[in-house]
Structures are given as structure tokens and as C-alpha cells.
Amino acid sequence: MVGVSLVVAGAAAIVGGAEFLTKTGKQAILHAQAETTASQWVRYIEHVVPELPEIVLGANPTDDAMMFLAHGIDTSSVMNYRLYDSTGSLRLAGGIDAYKTAELKRSEDDVRLVLSTQRSLLHFDIFPADSAHQSAATRESDRASEHQHDHHSHGPDRHAQKAPSPIEHITIDHDHHHSMGMQSYLTPIIPAGSRQVVTAFFYPIFADDRLAGVLQVELDQSVIAKSIKSTFRMLSVGLILILALAVAPPFFFGWRKSIQRARAEKMARHLAYHDALTHIPNRRYAHEEIERRLKEQAHAKNVMALLCLDLDGFKSINDAFGHAAGDELLRQAVTRLTALLNTDDIAARLGGDEFLVLPKLGTPPETVRQLAANIIESFRQPFKINQQDASCGISIGIVIADHRWKGRDQLLHAGDIALYEAKAQGRQRAILFETSMEERLRKRREIEKDLRLALSRDELILHYQPQFDVRTKTLTGFEALARWQHPTRGLLPPSEFIEIAEELKMIDAISHWVMQQACKAAMSWSRPLKVAVNVSVVEFERGNLVATINEALSVSGLAPERLEIEITESVLMTNTNLAIETLKQVRDLGVSVAMDDFGTGYSSLGYLCKFPFDKLKIDRSFLLSNDQSRQSKRIIETMIALGHSLDLIVVAEGVEHPEQLDMLEALSCSEAQGFHLGRPMPAAEAELFVDQHITLPTSQDMAGEAQTVASRSVSAL
């Protein structure tokens, strides 16, 4: 009997101990696990969303902030977060149950209570349940909460009768500071009518030592609570097993959370320092790497180099094909770029279509320049976007800096200036930074400022260069050429301001003005001659070219067959299908189309097959070349024969001497233009020229112009 009594007593003791451990151990483990998870989550948010206080104060959250908040929930046990301002109003919410009305109302009430009772204090401090600082009311609230937990599994009817644990016992301690001014407060929540076990944390947020709001974090511990309860029931088997199981769960949960924490921290760091689209380092990574290399360079005195890169024509492709195609182009560009780098070189995306390459510290300058040349050559090959070829070159600004250079911003500014110079010199080239570039950039800014007012001040004018039939020597028409009569710089050719106008988004207004003026001028001529107008790539991209032509013809009354538009093959290279469709609509109006600068691009023959042009203009560089050999003549002869075989009118530009005109006549060239035949002239002079030059002027007629022709730069056309 004594033995039985001892067994029964021992069993009772084990059962009683198991019950005691179940109640106290479960609460302790849940508390520890919840506190660890919430703290880790808040540290993650504090790291990747430093603008949280500004959001509480009214700033709109950035896309990156929302992405990091969502990622934080996906990689942790956090089920909800809610952000309240100092009035208790909800500023931001997210998670599985973030918009349940009843739960949201209760959270807002709790937060307002905290704010109203602790308004003048600085930091929350949580005292344990057995603390002497805890009031009787608080202890009563805790007992009510514990009682509610005990009835957790008895069904929703009894569960719903219990109110949530109060939080009036939150006190403040000025000695506790977190990096974001946060101190946690933990309270259990058991939603009415539910078997969930939810724990809430309230983290005050401070801005300039003032209470700005509260961040509420909710953790779903239902699965863990159920697991702990089942585990502790096995304690009745024996005290040893009870003790073993008491140690195992915390170890398991801690191990699992450590893995999750390590994974989350790794992902957070990757997101913070890498571009989400291309997965290469981002601006933040590049800036820190430059600063690190500057410090290392100061000790080793090695040469440091950086390359600032920008895609040429990316915006055109993005607009023509869509943003999805633009993203795909960026990914392909990164693949092509990184394939050219060495293991220790770094490529980073600064934003948009801007990139930065940091060669290994100590790389010789000649190696850096060769790398830039290789990159440019690689980007000359078209990309494959939506089963179409899309050409997108690249411009590069190079900075070679020794240990005397100071500061990251100085290096990046120099790289931007060199990159700007590369684009100004024609794009698809690499330019090494020089101090003189800063002065040229300043002048460029002045031109941009003046160009914004040029139209309103009537400073833009048109000059007209005559075109003659080579065989009959008769005047066939004029090419309209834009000029800018700058108040201080004099007469500027289009090469000095058209590209700037495109960058300033003024090209539409200028093109509209040019088309109107050219058609009106043609109507004033005494004979029905043609007028040719150059059209830029941007006008095709905007999609309003046909409407602009229609309006100009309607306002001026000019017959469509007297108007001719000239395009370069760059118009067709960005979006061939769109360009061809637009040109067909232009021809349907009765307006003719000429391909300008033939022979200077990469795919002229292919475009001639895709679209039936009316005229082919041989670029002036072939006639102005110093090479007057038999081979050069054969190239011109071949282009003329090609044009005739396609039933095209062939026009040769840049005729400067009588011998050139004789050669073109012998090769059966259709038309010609150049200083030998007539210089670009204002509209009034063009009217007189029409009346005085029915046929090609004689050598005596042009003798007085010879000195003027010789002094003019070829680039003035």
C-alpha cells in the first residue's frame, strides 16, 4: 500500500509538475519567442525603412519602403503591422488580417489610450508581471488575461466573454533608448470567437525626442502554442522526459528562428545594396565602394578609375516598345556589360539607364581606356526585343584619379561631365575627363537657357539651299535648313542646338514652326518648286508627324506633291514598324520621302528594301573626301546605280567644285546641291534666286561668291 501510495503520490507529483510546467513554461516560451521575433522584425524594418518616423509624420511611403515591409512579413511570423500617428489615427497597415474591422477598432482604442496617458513622457518601459511597480489594477488585468488563456480551448462561447488584456500599466523610463527611439510593450491578444493565439507589440516611435506615433506588430503563435501544449502533455510519462522536453522546444525554436533571422538579414542586405531589376550592385553599394577605395588608395597611392555609362537611345526604345521591353533591354545590357569585366571589377546601376563601372584599384589607364572601347564596340550590336532588332549604343565618361583626388562627389561629378561631353560629341564614344570640360558645360547651360526663349523672340530663321537637275541644269527645289540668330553668338547651325532642343523637349514646337514656315515660303516662289524639310527621330516617336504635315499644307495651301520630308535611317532603327507605317501615311498624303545621309549608317540597304523611298541623298562626306581615287569614284557610281535600279531620284550633297559636278553628270546622277550650286540663303534671297536662276548659273555668275564659299565651314550646312 505504501508503495502504491508512493507511486500514486509520485504520479500525482509528476502530473502536477507537468501541469505547472505546462502553464508557466508555455507562457515563458511564447513570450520569449514572440519577443525575439518582433524585435528582429523591428530591427529589420529600422534598418531598411529609416524614413519610418517621417511616414508617421505624414510623408508618403516610398515603393522601396512598402516592398521591405511586405518582405518582412513574408519572411517572419509577423502577421500584421499597423502604424499610428500621435493622434492615434492609422497611417499604414499591412498583413493577413490588417483590415478586419473589429480588430482594427480595438487596436486603435488601445493605441489612443497609450498616447493619451503617456503624452508628455518619452519612452515606454515594460515591467514584468511580478514587478513591484505593477499596480493592483494591472495585476488584476493580467489575471484576467491568464484566465482568458486558460479558457482558450473551451470553445468560442466562453472565449468571447473575456475582454482583451488592458495596457494601462505601461510606464515610461527615460534611460532606455533604441536607435529609432523604440521600447517594446508586449500584450497577449485572443480574438473573440477564435482559437488563434496572437501576441501584440507596441513600439513607440520618436522624432526629435517627441512621441510621433506607435508601431503595432502582431504575431500569430497559434501553431507554436499548440505544439508546446502537446509537447508538455508528454511530461506525465516521466520527470526525466519532462525535463528533456522542457529544454528541447526552446532550443528548436531558437535554432529555427536563427536560421530565419540569418536568411532575412541576408535578403535584406541584398535588397538594400542591389538593384531589384538587374541584380547588380545599386547606387548605395557603389557610393560606399568608392569611399572604401578612396581610403585604400590614400595608403597604397594606386590609380583609381571609374566609368560613368549611359545608354544612347534607351528612352526611344522604352517609349516605342513599352516599359516591359525597356526592362528587358536593361537586363540584356547588364549581361553584355558584365561579360566584359574582370573578376575584381564592379558594375553598378545608378538608376534608369545610368551605370557605373569601377575597375580594380590600380588598373593601368590604358587598360581602362581599352575596356571602355570594348564596351562601346559591344553595344554597337543590336538587341533582340520582342523578336525585333533594337539598336541602343552607349556613351562613357572616364575619370582617372590618383591619391590627390578627394571625395566621392568630386569623382562622380567629373564622371558626369565627361559623360556629358561624350554625348555632346556625337554619342557612342568614351571621353576622358579634363578640367576644360567644366567651362564648356557652363556654356552649354547658357545655350539651353537662351534656347527656351528663342521661339518667342523670333530668333529662329530658315535658310534655303537650292537643288539642281544635273542633266538639264534646271532648278528643282530647295532644302529648308534651320538657323538660330543668337543675340550674342551670331548665326548658329542646327548642329549646335537641335540636339539640345530634343533634350529640352522643345523639338516638337521647333519642327512645327519649321514645317509651317517652309510651306509658306514655297508658296511665295514664282514657280512650283519642291521644298524639303528634315524630320527628327523624336517627331516619329511622338506620333504627330502626319498631323503636323496636314496642318502646314492646309494653312499654307501648298500642294502635297511640292513637299518632301528627309529622314535619316536612325528614324527607322528604333521602331521600324512604327516608322514605316508613319511614312506610308505621309506618302498617302502625296508627300514624297527621301533618305538623307545615305551610306553613313549600318543598315541602309535593308531599309531601302523595307520601304519604297522616293529619293536617295548621297552624304556629302563621299564628295568632300580627300581621296579622289578611282575606288572612291566607284563607290559613288555604285550608290547612283543602286538608286536608279530602285527607281529612286539620286541627289548628291556637298558639290563644291565644277569637277565634282562633271563627274556626277558622267555617272548619271539625278540632282545635286552644294556651295558650287548655291549656298543656303534667307527666304527673301531664295525668292530672287528662283526668278534669276531658271537654269544652273554659269561660272561667271558664281565668281563673286567663290571667296565666300571658300571661307565657310563645311559644318555650316
Overview of this protein structure:
The chain is an alpha/beta fold. Helix content is 49%, strand content 19%. The chain is built from 26 helices and 24 strands. The chain has an 8-stranded mixed β-barrel with strand order 15-16-18-19-20-21-22-23, surrounded by 4 helices. The protein has a 5-stranded antiparallel sheet with strand order 2-1-7-6-5, sandwiched between helices. Helix 1 packs parallel to helix 8 (239-273) and helix 16 (507-523) runs parallel beside helix 18 (545-556). The protein is elongated, with a radius of gyration of 39 Å. Mean pLDDT is 77; it is low at 1-8, 98-106, 117-183 and 699-717.
Question: What is shown here, in short?
Answer:
By secondary structure, this protein is α/β, with parallel strands linked by helices. The chain is built from 26 helices and 24 strands.
Describe this protein with a few key phrases.
717 residues, alpha/beta, eight-stranded mixed β-barrel, five-stranded antiparallel beta sheet, 26 helices, 49% helix, 19% strand, elongated
Rg over alpha carbons: 39 Å
Shape: elongated
Strand content: 15-25%
Q: Give me the count of strands.
A: 24
End-to-end C-alpha gap: 122 Å
Sheet/helix structural class = alpha/beta
Low-confidence stretches: 1-8, 98-106, 117-183, 699-717
Q: Number of helical segments?
A: 26
Strand line-up in the sheet with most strands? 15-16-18-19-20-21-22-23
Major beta sheet summary: 8 strands, mixed, barrel
Proportion in helices = 40-55%
Q: What is the averaged pLDDT score?
A: 77
Topology:
Layout: H1 2-48, H2 52-56, H3 63-74, E1 78-85, E2 90-95, H4 101-117, E3 124-125, H5 136-150, H6 156-159, E4 171-172, E5 185-189, E6 198-207, E7 210-220, H7 222-233, H8 239-273, H9 283-300, E8 304-312, H10 314-321, H11 323-338, E9 346-351, E10 354-358, H12 365-378, E11 383-385, E12 388-390, E13 393-401, H13 408-424, E14 430-432, H14 437-454, E15 460-469, E16 475-486, E17 490-492, H15 498-503, H16 507-523, E18 530-534, H17 537-542, H18 545-556, E19 563-567, H19 570-574, H20 576-588, E20 592-598, H21 604-610, E21 615-618, H22 621-624, H23 630-645, E22 649-652, H24 658-666, E23 671-672, E24 681-682, H25 683-692, H26 706-711
